[in-house]
């Protein structure tokens, strides 16, 4: 797909981290970008910087997602690109015993469900609604109507202790990639997923310096966290390369996560 000012894109979670980097990379190519996020202050600021628009969107809500797409399409027209970066995580053991008093507790089901609803169901909700819109587009010369990029995690394949919900949600994103690519193949819509390792996002960069150094040392090569711009670089490759379809690609400096 050729990226220029004739193309519109939606990036969920686009106000910070991997999503923000992708917004900036797309805008640098001339693409008209709409940011979906809950952080209105940051989202509006990034949109203003890149000449895009912002919509406050909760990916767990049909009404919110519908309103976001309506706003984006009114401003920019039907998007040909969707990049899903919205997500959360938590760290809770499935069942555990207190070191203080020996009491036993289990993973709260509401907390498990929240991660699944945002990371997995929210991703699928945005895919389904965006793809339905893409079907209204005229195909380009190669028959392509659109491209979708999802964000999973290396935790989908080697989740650590306490990551049952997060790993399940990201594993679901990996598993839905090929079936959706097959669902949409006759309509010229490609679907791919990135599995990032540890990246310099606001969450990780807020850790103590020693913790950041330990994370850097855990990466085989290069011995550092990934730069969000490197995620964006791969996302744009997946979008621009017309033969890239139905793939799940790790972007992690060859890291394999330890149990803890």
What does this structure look like?
The chain is an alpha/beta fold. The chain has one domain (8-251): NAD(P)-binding Rossmann-like Domain (Rossmann fold, 3-Layer(aba) Sandwich), CATH 3.40.50.720. It is 44% helix and 17% strand. It has 9 helices and 9 strands. Strands 3-2-1-4-7-8-9 form a 7-stranded parallel sheet, with helices on both faces. Strands 5-6 form a two-stranded antiparallel sheet. Helix 2 (40-50) links the parallel strand 2 (32-37) and strand 3 (53-56).
Helix-strand blueprint:
Blueprint: E1 8-12, H1 17-28, E2 32-37, H2 40-50, E3 53-56, H3 62-76, E4 81-84, E5 95-97, E6 104-106, H4 109-134, E7 146-151, H5 155-158, H6 164-183, E8 189-196, H7 202-205, H8 209-217, H9 228-240, E9 248-251
Parallel strand pairs: 1-2, 1-4, 2-3, 4-7, 7-8, 8-9
Antiparallel strand pairs: 5-6
Helix pairs in contact: 1-9, 3-4, 4-6
Keywords: Oxidoreductase
Pfam families: adh_short
Protein name: NAD(P)-dependent dehydrogenase (Short-subunit alcohol dehydrogenase family)
Specify the CATH homologous superfamily. NAD(P)-binding Rossmann-like Domain
Oligomeric composition of the shown chains: single chain
The computed structural class is alpha/beta
CATH architecture: 3-Layer(aba) Sandwich
Helical content stands at 40-55%
Strand % is 15-25%
**Main sheet: strands, sense, barrel:** 7 strands, parallel
Task: Indicate how many domains the architecture comprises.
Answer: 1
SSE string, helices as H and strands as E: EHEHEHEEEHEHHEHHHE
Distance N to C terminus: 41 Å
Tally of DSSP helical segments: 9
C-alpha Rg, in Å?
19 Å
Low-confidence stretches: none
Whole-number mean pLDDT: 96
Overall shape: it is globular
CATH class value: Alpha Beta
Strand order of the largest sheet: 3-2-1-4-7-8-9
Family: Belongs to the short-chain dehydrogenases/reductases (SDR) family.
InterPro entries: NAD(P)-bd_dom_sf, Sc_DH/Rdtase_CS, SDR_fam
GO molecular function: oxidoreductase activity
Keywords: Oxidoreductase
